[in-house]
């Protein structure tokens, strides 16, 4: 088994002490080590925000792009080389706000990437404004009267649109989260893992205490992961009890398996054949 | 007598203008005549007014003519709209039902003859037959073009042949001044739309991912390219929006394939942050911007050259990029190949500027479309490195470009960020890193400028020069020809390579002339001001047009003549 230390990197971590991101980072390293995927075989694509910085803090190949746009970058990379193991780190504002349209398209495509959404229900890097998942009434400096809208339910959204792997983890349950990430990476197709993440600086409602009291793991021996209706019902549970685990799982053909242009292997590995191209052009 | 005939076929969208035009263009093309075809249409699928204009000549033609010799009016509106543009020798061909009482109008019962031949649907074939008859085409050509179009579908072919012959025979006793002495020669080259030439260029350039969001007039490029999916290592991906398209292209290029997108100004506006992403991550990408008039939605199916200053400056802060506007159909094909080469050589974005007129018109490509023997990727692998674990994607170098490795290919880790960064691709706010990275990126400009071709002179030693760029080339050259025939000392200078601005060669080309006028499809003369900014030379006047229609050589010549005023410019 690969040692998790293989992913350690000496770049200075820039998160707040006690940030929920540390649990997520450790879960990622463990999931990679468990699968024995060495750092040079991992590509992490990320957006902007504290979550977007994640790939700087472990050894891997990475593309740290724009706010909201990690999913299309990852999609392009996967289309270019569908042998890549691609993890995507985004925040809730990043993925569900700025990048919302890309999430919908990624579900429709069923592109084989593992999407980790660090959902702390607040904008951290810009110092504490409401996010798409902030609860109604959540008070911030920008929303002093409280958030007037309702929170997005990302799991229900993804399940309703036919996403093939929808899960929720919690940064306080590192082992459980690393299992979800491992399962998500093994799943052929889009995997969405929404991760309840504590923000010690700007979210004083959804704290570690809040989650520790409420979070429970779905019982895998009892919970049927391929029951869509049950998954939708479970995705709507939020309050005194908050379920985590795999809500829904159903494998269908992933996007890169469906494309005629990829039948003969990853685009990046194909040879340029000038004679063939010349013939295509002159015959057209 | 030299041949120079313009045929306009007009009607409502969906009326089959294309059928008449394609048959006519096909006949001219296969007989060895030169021709070009302009498509003019509204932003609607049915109804409205559309027309196709075919200019036929025994000389190369690269701009539309201002007079019409043969007007095929499939409806009354066409007749009303185009009557004023008729040449004195012109003839208007009308379906009998639409017959007007004008002397030049020739009524041919397209619909009735089509019914006789087997169906009203073939009225357009009758019209095409009548056109060929008036133009004096040998009857055998009808059969050839119909066979090409309908192929093995015997009954359809026979019926259409019958219909075309009826049209042909209906006009056989008519005489016109511009009857062509039809050659029987090889075709003068492939007849291609700008969109198709660009798509074939992308294929020849080994572009492997083309991501796009549909937007007129750029969509044709992707439609043409999609034809090759499954035959070449290629994916054409319709993205959820333009932002996704450009980010996919960046992701694919980062992962190691040549990738591009195509859009128009509105989509390009959405792509500007992605353009900056390509720049700061030094990821080579190609973006084709097929211009149309703006701002915002503007005129979706019309043409313009209004985005020059925009694309040169698009996205925040500063970074090097190439901007190239091909002047001809062969050059468009070659420009895409060159764009990918330059993008990878310098690890910068390349923007190709074309426009609706260029993309939707058909031109003869006199040169063969040549596929490069090999593709230089300018990549590095572990084998090139003393210590792969120490690889730094943004290692400082004098040229500004660092060795580029691909992610997950080797032990070397490829780490990039849209934040400002150190050589290792980690976020850095250190003053030295910031200065080093800006200097590194901007250092590329020096060598990039050396790649720039000087503007293309046409009688470049003349006293007055007409200066333009991209697809205005054809109209400028023909305007120069007309003015020189009238003994004006006028030449042309046309740019394809616009950025980095080839300042020295432009200065040299322009400092010899007494004055120059710019010729552009925008309201402020964007190239004129760019020349002023970069060389200090000031344009003496600007011939501008922003009505969404392409330049006509005649209007350029008339304007230029007016601007030369009372001065004696005759040689």
**Apparent shape of chain A:** globular
- The CATH architecture classification of chain A is 3-Layer(aba) Sandwich
Portion of residues within helices of chain A: 25-40%
The strands making up the biggest β-sheet of chain B line up spatially as 6-5-4-1-3-2-14-7
Strand order of the largest sheet of chain A: 2-1-3-4-8-7-10-9
CATH superfamily of chain A: Thiamin diphosphate (ThDP)-binding fold, Pyr/PP domains
Report the CATH architecture of the largest domain in chain B: 3-Layer(aba) Sandwich
The number of distinct helices of chain B, counting runs of at least 4 residues, comes to 18
Distance between the termini of chain B: 27 Å
Judged by helices, strands and strand pairing, the structural class of chain A is alpha/beta
Stated plainly, the CATH topology of chain A is called: Rossmann fold
Brief write-up:
The complex is a heterodimer of chains A (284) and B (571). Chain A is 32% helix and 17% strand.
Can you put this structure into words, describing what you see?
The complex is a heterodimer of chains A (284) and B (571). Chain A is of the alpha/beta class. Chain A has a single domain (4-258), classed as Thiamin diphosphate (ThDP)-binding fold, Pyr/PP domains (Rossmann fold), CATH 3.40.50.970. Chain A contains 10 helices and 10 strands. Chain A has an 8-stranded mixed β-sheet, with helices on both faces. In chain A, strands 5-6 form a two-stranded antiparallel sheet. In chain A, a hairpin with a 5-residue loop joins strand 5 and strand 6 (129-130). In chain A, helix 1 (21-34) packs across helix 6 and helix 5 runs antiparallel to helix 8. Chain A starts with 20 loop residues before the first helix and ends with a helix. Chain B is α/β, with parallel strands linked by helices and 571 residues long. Chain B folds into 4 domains: 4-188, Pyruvate-ferredoxin oxidoreductase, PFOR, domain III (Pyruvate-ferredoxin Oxidoreductase, domain 3, 3-Layer(aba) Sandwich); 191-365, 3-Layer(aba) Sandwich (Rossmann fold), CATH 3.40.50; 382-450, no CATH class; 456-564, Rossmann fold. In chain B, 37% of the residues lie in helices and 21% in strands. Chain B has 18 helices and 21 strands. Chain B is globular. The mean pLDDT of chain B is 95. The chains are: A alpha/beta (284), B alpha/beta (571).
